[in-house]
Amino acid sequence: MAAGSPGGSSIMESVVKSADRVVTVLTVLATAPTGLSFTDLLNKLELPRSSLHGLLQTLIQSKVIVYDPETKLYHFGPKIWELSMAYYHRIHLVPVAWPYLQRLRDQFDQTVQMAILEGTEILYVAKVESSHPLQLVSHVGSRLPAYATGLGKALLATLDSQTLEATWKHLDYEQFTENTLSSFDALCVELDRSRAQGFALDRGEYSADVRCLAYPILGFQNRGVGAISISLPAPSFTPILLNDLVGELQHIGQLISIQIGSADPDAWRKGSEPSLPVRERLL
């Protein structure tokens, strides 16, 4: 049935009404930390009894709310906690990370950046310039394709294969340089390499004369919430500097992850086999 047809319009109105009712139920429950009974909710929401019952059952199944059979009260469920923690870590990420980003910049005098994943792009949320600023296209508030950046690949390496396939398998991989990844299969190989070596690398895949090392930041439940990177001119990218940069980048990334709630900052690498000799082959 076409979305513009009368039937399609009524379905959309029904969906919007259901979503509005979910928000209303959660808002009312938020005012009662000790919980509310079915009768309490019925009186406050003024919904049909059958509609409220169906709505509550759906929210219980998704763990958004829970029902205590002894007290006969409804409360917020564990899903609310997960969502609130994700939001908390998102808005606190930059203030927590900022001194560590400055420390990383001061140690190597290279440009340090931080980004978060937004759909198929990364959004830059922090940048600390070196004393010899690179001519980078990125700036705080800008977006770039995740597959063409070190920060993006670090973030994608934290995702499970099902999530990756759903979003990235049929993506149009635009080529920015001769080094840009060109397919989903190439992306998967690159992410496996990133997990094995413990960092992501941009080999001039968006800007040909720039190299970038990146490491993901994990938060609550060891989920990827951001990534940090060090960018430098291609001529400065030597094996000796690479080893120094990687060790400190990993250390700083793990410190930030612990600060914002990760119990295992290296969890994103689990399931991969360590491959220490790869570093010289990356240059």
Percent strand: 15-25%
- Please compute the radius of gyration using only Cα atoms: 23 Å
Q: Spell the H/E element sequence.
A: HHHEEHEEEHHHEEEH
The named CATH superfamily of the largest domain = GAF domain
CATH architecture descriptor of the largest domain: 2-Layer Sandwich
Q: What does the overall shape look like? A: elongated
Which structural class matches the secondary elements?
Answer: alpha+beta
**Helix proportion range:** 40-55%
> How many distinct domains?
2
CATH fold label of the largest domain: Beta-Lactamase
Q: State the end-to-end CA separation.
A: 55 Å
Largest pleated sheet: 6 strands, antiparallel
Number of strands: 8
Query: Which runs of at least 5 residues are low in confidence (pLDDT < 50)?
Result: 272-283
Regarding CATH, which class of the largest domain?
Alpha Beta
Nearest-integer average pLDDT = 85
What is the spatial order of strands in the main beta sheet?
5-4-3-8-7-6
Q: Number of DSSP helices?
A: 8
Question: What does this protein structure show overall?
Answer:
- Keywords: DNA-binding, Transcription, Transcription regulation.
- Residues 16-78 form the HTH iclR-type domain.
- This protein is α+β, with helices and mostly antiparallel strands and 283 residues long.
- The chain has two domains: 6-76, Arc Repressor Mutant, subunit A, CATH 1.10.10; 85-282, Beta-Lactamase.
- 45% of the residues lie in helices and 17% in strands.
- The protein has helices spanning 6-30, 38-45, 49-61, 78-108, 150-156, 161-168, 184-197, 239-259, and strands spanning 65-68, 73-76, 111-118, 121-128, 143-145, 200-202, 210-218, 224-233.
- It has a six-stranded antiparallel β-sheet with strand order 5-4-3-8-7-6, sandwiched between helices.
- Helix 4 packs antiparallel against helix 8.
- The chain starts with 5 loop residues before the first helix and ends in a 24-residue tail after the last helix.
- Mean pLDDT is 85; it is low at 272-283.
